[in-house]
Amino acid sequence: MDPLTNAQTRALKAKAQGLKATLKIGKEGISPHFLAALDDDLKHHELVKVKFDDFKEQKKELAPQLAEKSASRLITRIGNVVVLYRPNPAHERPPQ
Fold it and tell me: What is the mean pLDDT of each run of 10 residues along the chain (96 residues)?
């Protein structure tokens, strides 16, 4: 995955502000079922918000692991919410 520029990261953060958390990490943690749901969301939306309902104390350690296991990029972590991004090559991109 190519690194994002600062402008791209800022644009993704701005876009994420209008999103609601689509997935929640509960007592099961980062289970295979959760990862499958996250993979499906990333395929359809590219930019996904995930909320930590449980494991709030470990969110600093779990957020990068979540990005690694889902082959996505951690855009930001604010409070109990993380924003993940994985580009979908099937989506049409405007020229940069």
Answer: 88 94 90 94 95 88 94 94 91 54
Cβ contacts of 82 within 8 Å, gap of 6 or more:
49, 50, 52, 59, 63, 66, 67, 74, 76
Read off φ and ψ for residue 61, nearest 5 degrees: -80, -35
Q: What domains appear along the chain, each with residue ranges and CATH number?
A: 20-85 (3.30.110.60)
> Which pair of structure tokens corresponds to residue 76?
């930001």
The helix or strand, by DSSP H or E, that contains position 32, with its residue range, turns out to be helix 32-45
Q: Is the pTM of this model over 0.90?
A: no
Gap between the Cα atoms of 25 and 81, Å rounded? 10
